[in-house]
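Re: the multi-chain job from yesterday

Posting the exact lines I submitted so nobody has to dig through the queue logs.
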Amino acid sequence: MIEARALTKRYGEVLAVNSVSFKVERGEVVGFLGPNGAGKTTTMRMLTGFVPPTDGSASIAGHDIFEDPLAARRSVGYLPETPPLYPEMTVTSYLRYVAAIKDVPRARRREAIDRALERCALTQVRGRVIGTLSKGFRQRVGLAQAIVHDPPVLILDEPTVGLDPVQIGEIRGLIRDLASGSGDSQHTVVLSTHIMAEVSAICRRVILINEGHKRVDASLDDLAREGRSLESLFARETGSETPVEAAR
Amino acid sequence: MRHVPTVAMRELRSLFVSPVAYVVLSLFCVLAGLFFVIGVAAFDTWVRQLMQFQAFDQLQELNLNDQLVSNFYDTMSVILLILTPAVTMGLFAAEKTNGTQELLLTSPLTIWDIVLGKYLGAALFVALLVLLVAAFPMLLFLYGDPEIGKTVSGLIGLLLVGWTYTAMGCFASSLTRSQIVSFLITLVLLLTLLLLPAISDLGVVGDAEGLGRTLRWLSTGEHFQQLLKGLVDTADLAYFAVIIGSMLLLTKAAVESVRWR
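And the result, structure tokens for all chains:
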């Protein structure tokens, strides 16, 4: 579903992402793990078409991001680190706008919006103005925005950051649901985080990035079989002394 | 280009749920009413004085359009110069502070969808302001006998001036993430535009043939005056098209520049 081929991003002298390649198959939930500033957000921005890679390429659901950028962007639902919300709009009118610019056919918009509202448990606040919602609800509106056009691929940048434990549980449950659907409703999810517990809670595979390089790409089952823990892996790859500290 | 109306409608609706639209509309109505009444009163005094002095030749030549309507339009163009930046300041700057720029640029939209949509949204709002201005000369048709041609061509001029200001504001907003900075850049740009003929008159930029003439041509006022006189010339209309077009091209480049960095 996602194929990154030697993605590289250079900001002037700074090499933010250095030749990162990986493949994600349909229905996989992959955790992008790494310390802050490792290049997670930049990699995601390249996949979603927000910034073009300096070198390398990628394809989303078979559409190359350079050759067919509109089709590639149509296949992605993207939740940036800060949810892209218009505070003055109501939840429903915001989702109606997003559905329109994401090319959901007019006849199917109402249904698509209702489904997104329901999946993100937003039905009771659908008429509320976004600016008056709590942070947890806003994050869910951000997630609803990402799934409203039912894209095969979801890219979520730190989806649980800044939420309380109950809200974190809810969002994680929702992401698991999105990936476990069958057939067309099954989403491929890539999410970034610097919290290891999050990876073990939702993902089946982890890609560890540090200083722009891909360090580890392994399934959690394999890691468990080899008797290695995420914490020790993280500590070794990022060179941090106290893995428990790094986990927080 | 399919998404231009979608983007435009969102922009327009956002203006109307924020206080900006209502503040601009009410200020504009108050000022328009004030200047119109002052204009009518001044015209009235002038007519009375001429009658007192029995200056029948001058009374004969007195023209409602030149004495009242054109001046009124001219004043309103200055009011637009101050209020248009308030309408356009948020167009792109707010997208950056909301983080919604990321939504727009990762959606299957072209840059032109975004730029033209936003311009159209603000341009429709400015058209509404000009429509309010139109209500005042309509009153004159009830009590007097203004020339319809001149009244309409002046109104078209005012609309084009407003749309030119909007395009400049659009560009300024695409340069920054601060709405206040965007407002100030637009205001300074527009004031400079207003002062261009004066700069050219200073004579420091050379004779009337070279740079001076170019500066005059660049000034919105020069072309607006022609339309106020009732002269609808393609050269003047082309001026507005050229300025709006180049401003939108610059805006497109500025929006796209996120991708170059």
